[in-house]
Predict the 3D structure of the following.
Amino acid sequence: MTRSTGRAVVIGAGVVGSAIALELARRGWDTTVVDRGPGPGHGSTAASSAVVRFTYGTVAGTAMAYEGASWWEHWVDHVDLPAGTALTTFVQCGMVFFDDPSGLARASAEVLAEVGVAHEWWSVDELHRRLPHLATGSWFPPTLVDDPAFAAPAAAELGGALFTPEAGYVSDPQLAAQNLADAAVRAGAAVRVRAEVVAVERDDRRVRGVLLADGTVLDADVVVNAAGPHSTVVNRLAGVLDDMRVSMRPLRQQVTHVRVPEGAIESVARHPATADLDGGIYFRPDHQALLVGGVEADCDPLVWLDDPDAFDLELDAAEWEAQAYRLARRIPGLGVPHDRRGVVGVYDVSDDWMPVLDRSSLDGWFMAVGTSGNQFKNGPIIGHCMAELIGAVRDGLDHDREPLVVRGPYRDLDIDLGTFSRWRAVTDEQRERGVLG
Ligand SMILES: Cc1cc2nc3c(=O)[nH]c(=O)nc-3n(C[C@H](O)[C@H](O)[C@H](O)COP(=O)(O)OP(=O)(O)OC[C@H]3O[C@@H](n4cnc5c(N)ncnc54)[C@H](O)[C@@H]3O)c2cc1C
C-alpha cells in the first residue's frame, strides 16, 4: 500500500537538504529534493572540513551536536544502503581545544558538563606527553604573519587543553550527502539535479509549490529552504524575509591542505582535530595531510559576498600564507609547504553564527538555513528535527508560541528548537559565544 502524508519539496541537496528529504520520505511524505547543481553535496558541503565537535556555547547547540554525532557513529545502519555502496566514514580521532586567554575552552567545558559530554582537561605537561610535536606557547591574540609579534617568542604557555574523545571528522562530506540522497530515493523520494527553483507559488497565507528554471511547477503542501549560501535568495522568492529577526549573509572561506612529510608526525591519520584559537586556526588530519582553516580571528579580514555565486575560486595567497605559517609555528617539525593547495567554499552566516531551524510566516514554508560554517556535523540530526517540526505543525502545533522540543533518539537529550527560532534576539554575547572553537 502506498501511503502519503502530503507533498514536500526540499530546495537544496546538500547534507542538510538530503537529510531532511530522507527523514520526510521515511515518515511517508511524497518528497522531492531539487538542486541546481550537478548532484547532491556539491555546494558548501563539498568544501566542508566536516569536523564533528561538541563545543558550542548553548545547551541546545551542544546537545544537538552530541546527539548528531551518533548518526555518524551509526551511519551504515542509518542510511541502510545495499552492500557494496561506497559510504563515508566517521573517524573518531578526538578533539583538543587549547586553553588560551580568551577563556572559551573553559566556557565550553562548563556547557559540556551540563549536557553530559565526555571530556578531559589536559595540563600543558599532558599535552606535551600526548602530542609531543606541538609547540605549546601562547601567542594570543592571533596576528597576521607580517606582524612583528608573529615571529616573536611566545609570551606565555597555553593553559592546557580540553579533550573530547568522541569528536572527530567525517571522511568525505560530499559522499555523505550522496549517501543520504540515495537513502532518500530508497525511501521513496525523488532527487532532481540541475533543477533550479526560480519562483515560489503561493497565495496570501500558504505556499503552493515551486517553479523550476525549465518551466516545471512542483505542487507542494510543504517546501523546505535548505539552499545553503543561497538561503536568503530563496527566502526572498517566498516573501518571508520581513518576518525574520535573524538575517543570513554568504561568507567566502578557504581551507589549506598541508601534506605532512614522511615521519614528521607519527600517525597523522589519528591526530586529534585541534581548535587553536590562540593561533587563529583549526586543523584536522586528512590521510597523510592536515587541513587548516581559519577561526575568524579579529585580525583576519572577512570576505562577505553580495552574491553567493560571485566569489573567487582561486586560493588567496595571503590567507593561504596565514594558515600555513600558523600551522608551522604550532607544529615546528612540519615546515611550510612549497605548493599551495586547498579548497574554497562559502558559509551561510547568521547574525549569531547559529542556524535558523524554523517555520516561517508563510504556512508550509520551512527553513534550515544559516548553518554558519559549523553545521555539517548536524546535517543528519537537522533532518530529524525538521521532519519532526513539519509533522508537528501539520498536526496543529503553534511552534511560534510553544516551540517544539525534540528528544534525541540516541542519547535521550532534549533539543529545544526555540533556540533556533527566526525571531530570537541576537545579543553580543551570543554573537561571541554561540559557537565556541
Ligand atoms: C570551507 C568550509 C569548511 C567547513 N567546515 C565545517 C566543519 O569542519 N564542521 C562542520 O560541522 N561544518 C563545517 N562547514 C559548514 C558545513 O559544511 C555547512 O554548514 C553545511 O555543509 C551546509 O549544508 P547545506 O546542505 O545547508 O548547504 P549546501 O551544501 O550549500 O547545499 C545547498 C544546496 O542548495 C542548492 N541550491 C541553492 N539554491 C538553489 C535553488 N534556487 N534551486 C535549487 N537548488 C538550490 C545548491 O546547489 C546546494 O547544493 C564548513 C563549510 C565550509 C564552506
The chain has two domains: 7-87+172-247+352-433, 95-165+248-349.
